[in-house]
Design brief:
Keywords: Cell inner membrane, Cell membrane, Electron transport, Lipoprotein, Membrane, Oxidoreductase, Palmitate, Respiratory chain, Signal, Transmembrane, Transmembrane helix, Transport. One of its GO terms (molecular function) is copper ion binding. InterPro entries: CcO_II, CcO_II-like_C, COX_ARM, Cupredoxin, CuRO_UO_II, Cyt_c_oxidase_su2_TM_dom, Cyt_c_oxidase_su2_TM_sf, Cyt_o_ubiquinol_oxidase_su2. The protein folds into two domains: about 70 residues; about 180 residues, Cupredoxins -  blue copper proteins (Immunoglobulin-like, Sandwich). The protein is elongated, with a radius of gyration of 27 Å. It is built from nine helices and eleven strands. Strand 2 and strand 3 form a beta hairpin. The longest helix is centred in the N-terminal third of the chain and has 34 residues. By secondary structure, the protein is of the alpha+beta class. About 40% of the residues lie in helices and about 20% in strands.
Length: about 325
């Protein structure tokens, strides 16, 4: 009796502890603030709903069968030689096949409609932000505004944003959960991500790919301003910063490994810095002219063959 009470207490304590721990989980992915995020949430919930068509009946039957065929139920039919049912076979094969076919169709369509390289249709001119993953911080370059920031970006509400992403170090992953999916950042390559914020607010951005000792602190704020004027005010504030990023030496100093790097503003930035970062890892294509001539997203959309590049390098 004492052991039974002890086990019951342990079970209740475990349930309480699990509830407390789960309450701290971040549900940002299920609270989207942009069109892309909403589409992705719909896809996730649709997939879960379809899979529950199988999961819920299985769980119910597991309990129902255990109760019906318990040892104390003498009325349950005992069929030790039963081994096959055409009806059951039809159900357990047909239902999953239909669900998989529906999931495949939905996934095919949404994979293309939510392609991160695909621009968002809008009457507003897209804002371009160049993103460079560093150890262990994010550098954001606004080429049209001539400014740069570390671990903070601002974008106007309802204006599509084109992120051009690369890395000055190991592979990383750029992710703003409430606005849309993640995209990899890789040295010598440019990936793209198109997002839009439909509500004003400050959203957390993270690195979703382990990249070393300071990875856990590689976070940034994405500020969606309520209007263009507020965004222009933010740009004006950055332009008042004393720091600049006008030379390679200044960039190299910033790129040195650092953890929990604070938000930093640069009132001006060297033209073509983003292309320089890509070019220094590209071997035979180091000039700005060659890189600028490349179609946006060429590296990823065409599927770079790293084996062929390694072979060509060995022959040289």
């Amino acid at each position: 009796m004492r052991l039974e009470k002890y086990n019951k207490s342990i079970g209740m304590l475990s349930l309480f502890a699990s509830t407390v721990m789960l309450s701290g989980c971040n549900t940002a992915l299920m609270d989207p603030k942009g069109a892309i995020g909403h589409e992705q949430r719909t896809l996730i919930l649709t997939a879960i709903g379809l899979m529950l068509i199988v999961v819920i009946p299985v769980i119910i039957m597991a309990f129902a069968f255990a109760w019906k065929y318990r040892a104390s139920n003498k009325d349950a039919k005992y069929s030790p030689n039963w081994s096959h049912s055409n009806k059951i076979e039809a159900v357990v094969w047909t239902v999953p096949i239909i669900i998989i076919a529906i999931l495949a169709t939905i996934t095919w369509k949404t994979t293309h409609s939510l392609d991160p390289f695909k621009p968002i249709e809008s009457d507003q001119k897209p804002l371009t932000i160049e993103v460079v993953a560093l150890d262990w911080k994010w550098l954001f370059i606004y080429p049209e505004q001539g400014i740069a920031t570390v671990n903070e970006i601002a974008i106007p509400k309802n204006v599509p944003v084109q992120f051009k992403v690369t890395s000055d170090t190991v592979m990383n992953s750029f992710f703003i959960p409430q606005l849309g999916g993640q995209i990899y950042a890789m040295a010598g390559m440019q990936t793209q991500l198109h997002l839009i914020a439909n509500e004003a607010g400050t959203y957390k951005g993270i690195s979703s790919n382990f990249s070393g000792r300071g990875f856990s602190g590689m976070k940034f704020n994405a500020i969606a301003t309520p209007n263009q004027q507020e965004f222009d005010n933010w740009v004006a504030k950055v332009k008042q910063a004393p720091n600049t990023l006008n030379s390679t030496d200044e960039f190299n100093k910033l790129a040195a490994p650092s953890e929990a790097h604070p938000v930093e503003y640069f009132s001006s930035v060297k033209s073509g810095l983003f292309q320089e970062v890509i070019g220094k890892f590209m071997g035979e294509m180091k000039s700005h002219k060659d890189i600028d001539a490349m179609p946006d997203g060429m590296d990823m959309s065409k599927g770079m063959d790293m084996g062929e590049h390694a072979k060509a390098g060995a022959e040289e």
